[in-house]
Amino acid sequence: MREITDLAGFDRPDSLRLFFLLIPLVLFNLLHFRMYLPQGNFRVRYFFSSFFFILCCCCLVLALASPRWGYTIRSEYRRGADIILAFDLSRSMNVRDLKQDSGENLSRLEAAVSMAGELTAALRQRRLFPGITAEHSAGSSEIRLAVVIGKGRGILAIPLTADMEALSNFLLGLDASAMGGTGTNLEALLDAALDAFDETFPSNRSIILFSDGESLSGSLSAAAEKARGKGAAISCIGMGSEAGGTVPLGNTGLSEAFLMDGGGSPVISRLERDALRNAAEQSGGIYLEGSSPASIQALAGYAGSLVPENSADGVILRREPKPQSHIFTIAALFFLGLSYAARLEKRRMQRGRHED
Q1: Domain extents for the chain?
Q2: Cβ atoms within 10 A of the Cβ of 180, count?
Q3: What is the CA radius of gyration of the chain?
Q4: Residue 123 in contact with residue 295, Cβ under 8 Å?
Q5: Which of 161, 250, 310, 342 has most Cβ atoms within 10 angstroms of its Cβ?
């Protein structure tokens, strides 16, 4: 679990827009105070009654925004990290628009499998994580991996395991034919990844999604919200290029066929970078470009950071922000009481003037 560094702020900042609704109330009271009230104690009482009521409303708005500041220290029991490798196997992942140093063009899926293979090899050999030794990476700080694949739906291909060699062997044979069907539903793929976590095993949880971001159904944003609610971060590896490429359908006779649109033109599939980056940010993960040679090092460092660093028994300390809504709720009730008291005095003075 990542340490919380932003300890001051609001959990629901959109509620602060309600302050705009108080502007007409303030203007009405100022106008009424200046134009219609006579001089004297009654005018003063009206001013304080309205002033305290407006303060009450301001405190209620702040309470609704759920302010937080300061922090408390909490201990949690964590045993290493569980990482789900989620592969998008849709037809667009067969587009060959990722150029290698050798000049060869790899398909998006081939590049994703190669990148995942390097990651599992690094985990198996314990080499790519500065400060993470073999002793630290084993036992209570163990990293387990699983593989989920998906097109129109998601399925668990390899359950969580610490056997990196078996998982590497599966990746060597992974291609688009590993799953039938058509369509792309990244939300269903990520739902299957969330279901792959072991609820009885406390761990830091992360999903690494290899995809071009194109989704014909489902909501990537909704999946990211569900993942965040379950304490799992989604890190997205963007496979593809901005220029994109045609979507191959396989060989038909003498030539290779490509996916066509309604007008008879080839469909161009492009990397949906913004959708993937937004999902990663929303769930607390990272976004990396699958075309960048430096991404594997960054991904390896991220995987290593999920392992608890400060104790072999899996007990880690984290800071939690302290909610402070109750302070403003109490203040709102206090100002409401003062407003009511001033209003009672104002009514008493009105009755006295009528009797005179």
Answers
A1: 9-72+323-355, 79-313
A2: 9
A3: 29
A4: no
A5: 342
Q: Which two tokens stand for residue 273?
A: 């970078």
Q: What is the dihedral of CA 269, 275, 276, 280, to 10 degrees?
A: 180
79-313, CATH topology level: Rossmann fold (3.40.50)
- Residue 229: C-alpha distances to residues 10, 76, 246 (Å): 18, 17, 37
Question: Letter for the amino acid at 227?
Answer: A
Q: What are the Cα distances from residue 216, in Å, to 74, 282, 320?
A: 42, 21, 38
Within the chain, residue ranges assigned H as helices are: 19-35, 41-64, 108-125, 134-137, 164-172, 186-195, 220-229, 273-283, 295-305, 325-355
**What are the angstrom distances between the C-alpha of 192 and each of 93, 119, 240?**
19, 21, 23
CA 34, CA 22: separation in Å to the nearest integer?
18
